[in-house]
Amino acid sequence: MRTLLDLLLPAQCGGCARAGQLWCEHCAAVLARPPTRVRPRADPGVPCWTLGSYRGPARRAVLAAKEHGRRDLAHPLGFALAVALDRLRASDRPLLLVPAPTRASAARRRGGDPVGRASCTATGWLADSHSVAMLRAGRGVRDSVGLSVAQRAANLRGRIDVDPRGLARLRTLPNAEVVLIDDVLTTGATACESVRVLRDVGVAARALVTVCAA
After folding, report:
1. CB-based contact 185:214 (threshold 8 Å)
2. What does the pLDDT look like over 46-96, one tens digit per residue?
3. Is residue 82 within 8 Å of 131, Cβ to Cβ?
4. Torsion angles phi and psi, residue 32, rounded to 5
5. What are the structural domains, with CATH classification, of the chain?
């Protein structure tokens, strides 16, 4: 069946478009580098880490997952996040990964939430870890492309909230370290608002880890 599918729809690497593989060894190696500490223009008050810059295989993979329906890329992106988190992990406490909030309209257009899928996949490679989609982007949030730091902050202010079901799940893991997960770190505005709303309900995020940073 796979051979037939390859004939009808040839496999193409999501990071470099190389034919014959969905994710090639070269692109995997790029995302396997040690995570880098970054300091966005809007400081969320927690350490921010990224797997690499918003270019090359990382950028193409993120865009393919978000805009071109490449659901299969949740596996290599999730694995790369898991490797980075394992390197950064400083204790044996459980990890609770919280995907960045996404607009409902964007999730419908993309056939789901790519960041949430990658976050869930990462937990499959990490011991004692969980992924809980507890942040929601409410009505009025618009696409942030082209917005300044101040405009991004205003766009999100008061429009991200916490899903009570996710909060209840977190309460069952009182000793967990909470880590925010996102695909791209641009200005830090989303991270700032996410950290704030979590803090308002008594949840302290410990860090942000992203696939890439612009």
Report:
1. yes
2. 999 999 999 999 999 999 999 888 999 999 999 999 999 999 998 999 999
3. no
4. -90, 0
5. 30-213 (3.40.50)
